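Folded chain entry —
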Amino acid sequence: MLLQPLSYVIPTLSHDYAEWHQGREDYALWYIEITEPTLLEYLNSLRKYFSNFLFQPNIRQFHITLFVCGFLTEKQPILNDDFSIAQFKQQVQYIIQQQFQSFKILTGNLQSFDSALFIEIFDFENSLSKFRDLFSKTQHEIAPLQYLPHITLGLYNQAYHSSEIFQTIEKIHQKHFEIHIEHLTFGYYKAKMIQGQLYAHQQIHLGQL
């Protein structure tokens, strides 16, 4: 949910969240890696500017989440947020069969969810939805009902009032970028490490127009 006026952000707490991961280790997703140097420089400058507001350590690579799969397992899924290697392989086949081409998206303004700071993404060609529709054939997504593509800058470390966040955002000279997407990445992060590193498992390269 987007951060609303006259409200407080929801902070991330530094604990194990065992009730969520239940001992499982690798949380898998499809995502788009951010590799453009000028965009990375801008994102890093924003993360540094807002560092006092954000949970630390904050080392996860900048990316756009495309589809949240769940906890990766080589066995048959048991819990509703388990995701098997067999399901992943089926998703890969769906992408290959469709022969998707590379595409472009645009970055928008700096925004805030009630729990995280982010850069909005505009997908005027509706390319992201096409991939998401394919992925959903093998797995019900473990995510909010409404998909809003974005680049997360970080999670909040305290329950700041929304006015403080909005006022700080207003001070920023914002920039906008075009991103050329030539591949998708399937990977995971360690569930016990908050805002920890993303580990790429496989890349799917898209055809060139």
User: Anything to note?
Assistant: The CA atoms of residues 57 and 195 lie 7 Å apart. The chain has one domain: 8-205. The mean pLDDT is 95. The longest strand covers residues 63-73.
